[in-house]
Amino acid sequence: MESNNGTTIILMSGDMDKVMAAFNIAIGAAAAGKETAMFFTFWGLKAIQKGNYTGRSFLGKMMSIVNRGGINRIGPSQFNFWGLGRWMFKQMMKNHKAPPLEELRKAAIDLGVKLWPCQMSMEIMEIKKEDLIDEVGEVCGVAAMLEFSDHCKQTLFI
Amino acid sequence: MESNNGTTIILMSGDMDKVMAAFNIAIGAAAAGKETAMFFTFWGLKAIQKGNYTGRSFLGKMMSIVNRGGINRIGPSQFNFWGLGRWMFKQMMKNHKAPPLEELRKAAIDLGVKLWPCQMSMEIMEIKKEDLIDEVGEVCGVAAMLEFSDHCKQTLFI
Amino acid sequence: MESNNGTTIILMSGDMDKVMAAFNIAIGAAAAGKETAMFFTFWGLKAIQKGNYTGRSFLGKMMSIVNRGGINRIGPSQFNFWGLGRWMFKQMMKNHKAPPLEELRKAAIDLGVKLWPCQMSMEIMEIKKEDLIDEVGEVCGVAAMLEFSDHCKQTLFI
Question: Which residues are CB-contacts of B84 (< 8 A; sequence separation ≥ 6)?
């Protein structure tokens, strides 16, 4: 890749508004011709999970119940009381023709944005490769992410 | 602008402590001679709103009521129970002669820090240009922000 | 230092998962031969506090009680109801042989990662140098952090 171009986004948040921001920046970067990668770690993994229950151990299953993945289940970081936040936010996005998260993700994939799941997070949270959508790339660690980032102009932690 | 100098701060948070951190870094960067821009998106817009109620639709107005803008209404991300957080934090800042947010913002403006509101966030949240303080620059999108950021040394997401 | 290599991490969060992410990235960067510094500001200071009660004034002491420092007292940003979050998270980390925060911090120190506490945060929160672990470097401000960051490839705000 061309040196000093490109954008890396480390997405740790599983909050709707931040996931949305992450995909919007990734789309903008890819549309501007930058090589772009998103590294999904911890709660960010929810954005690339299929949405099935996960986990092997009792704790892993319990975590999956209180924090189930899947891009349509994600709520915003503010005002999520009684699910109102998610509904209100989705409604306002719809009213203003902002594309839903699923379409943003599709646009990112179509533009060639790489989706990399973080290995350590998957191990701790007991999420398997099969629990993730098919479009994700290789499961990788911090070293691989930093290596890509070394050729990038922006590296954001969201 | 000189290439590879400059600092971009994407401020998505509307929490007092993070807004404060964002302005402090922007001031530090501008004082060091870097061209500095802050891109205000989602809850971050509160920091450059005048503070009036906003919104056109029922939902937009409702969001403005639970999440009213204006730099003096902002509370910290931790311990905001019963407004104690904001009061306690403000009091400790005052006791230690740390400037309040409004002064930090003024210092940033005086040092030439650009304040850019995010177009898409304004549309979704139904915030108009008139709802923002006069010192803000052009309403812009991710593309313009990334273009500026391409000439910067740091791009932070706060 | 070699120009345009190196990594700066500004750690503002005191949440277990984010502190863990910060140390993991710092370790990865240092292990890859990059000069790496972590700048601890606000709640992030908890990760390098000894864990004793702090504060001089009534408010400072009160803040220390509700928000006591020390790397073993830190809880994750999600699901911290009744302390379950911290226990569950720690347990899952242990089950999967992920090192606890204290070992991560030690590994970072052993790899030469610089730990810099933010002066202004210490003043506002009434935390003294003696309240911090011995391995921290000079107390410094935004200017010094940015100067280091100017020679870095990545600057992350966590």
Answer: none
